[in-house]
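Record format v2
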Amino acid sequence: MLTEQQVRQFHDEGYLFLPETFNDDEVAVLKSEAEAIYRQQRPEVWREKSGAPRTAFAAHLYNEAHGLLARHPRMIRPVEQLFGEPVYMHQYKINAKAAFTGDVWQWHQDYGTWARDDGMPEPRAMNIAIFLDEVMPINGPLMLVPRSHTLGVLAAEHDTATTSYPLWTLDEATVTKLVEAGGIVAPTGKAGGLLMFHGNLVHGSAGNITPYPRKIVYLTLNAVSNYIRKPTRPEWIAHTDFAPIVPTDEGALTRYAQRFRQAAE
Amino acid sequence: MLTEQQVRQFHDEGYLFLPETFNDDEVAVLKSEAEAIYRQQRPEVWREKSGAPRTAFAAHLYNEAHGLLARHPRMIRPVEQLFGEPVYMHQYKINAKAAFTGDVWQWHQDYGTWARDDGMPEPRAMNIAIFLDEVMPINGPLMLVPRSHTLGVLAAEHDTATTSYPLWTLDEATVTKLVEAGGIVAPTGKAGGLLMFHGNLVHGSAGNITPYPRKIVYLTLNAVSNYIRKPTRPEWIAHTDFAPIVPTDEGALTRYAQRFRQAAE
């Protein structure tokens, strides 16, 4: 459970960072499986202009370890607590931000896309990033603009050129104003950290030219009553299975990870 | 004068960071003049693909404040001390790393270019970065690979595509090996800091998508006896005036900056 102070911080600042939420064993199996997924040729795996993997969508539906993470109580319970109701998986992806070639994500809000492309009624969906590699200041951390979630959906332009993924991005004047008010935070830390933030929080990330990859699981939990009304994107990008997630028991992923480690030894 | 420990650190690690070397008045005039220079249309001012200013070469020759910085004893004396002889200005530029659009500089060594393009006999020239804006982890700081200066000139490829400036860049396998040995440092701090590093130290910088510009003066002081033998680049990129720099008195830039401030008030 989140403390009162954490709940208040989420509502005030628009984000909450929970370092070391998953242990080394759990991270090891999730990371190893992510790399195996990236080697697959399938429509859910998108690549950078360079050919390096960028994103693997819906990995929780075709990979057991990621399936266990997607129902993990350490993640599901706090979000249920904040929304006051059960949640379902709106989107699940593993973002690579590859070493040397990891591409930029321009400043944007996610709820803009969910509203326009998926018909999501309200911004009652939570973005969650789970670090599979150490996130450092120099390998393209997510940058958030605190308090920018309080202003609703901001005007945005559809950018299909800058990056490999079409995005509704904000203009420089808007971002400058928001940053003057709220600054920028870039939570960093070892693999296993969990960052959650509001669907209207403005965020982006710079490119990565270091030899350190920065893989994260980046998923969205939507309040069940806020299910999407007008899906236009493929099922594996914006899911239409609105059944409430039933969390696993606390130790399910841990046990799976330990079996994985023992098998490798 | 540098302490014995600073001299040792330079030789061991390949760099030395001297925070807050120039005061607020001095920074203010250098920065204001840099912005005025960027507004000029002249061959020495290069731009990003977006049109934003990227680099202004040879500004010390056509701007009085930058002319005073180029002869400043706080910068010249330590470099003379390390080389044991007088120095001259090999290159002087103001790099913009503009807000939102600041471009990447791939991993490279500078001495490779000086040797190949300018006929510089030895890596006895010092790179110096003087911060005109606050350098933060998130606005594209210079990243250095400590100890990489001890390996001489590494094999490199001429990259004319990635960035707006042709560079001899290192491949990923080489950079990975160097970083495994030495790590990466990215000195940050308020405007006025001075970073000096060896001509063979491997360095690069990521793009800047924040609203915070990261202007630095980036100059090269060459030992006079190491003057370039085969210039092939324009005089304003690789100077051929090999006369030893005669430092100004300690207060010359300070007095200029104070007059500038008083005139503006």
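The mean pLDDT of chain A is 95.
The first strand of chain A starts at residue 15 and ends at 18.
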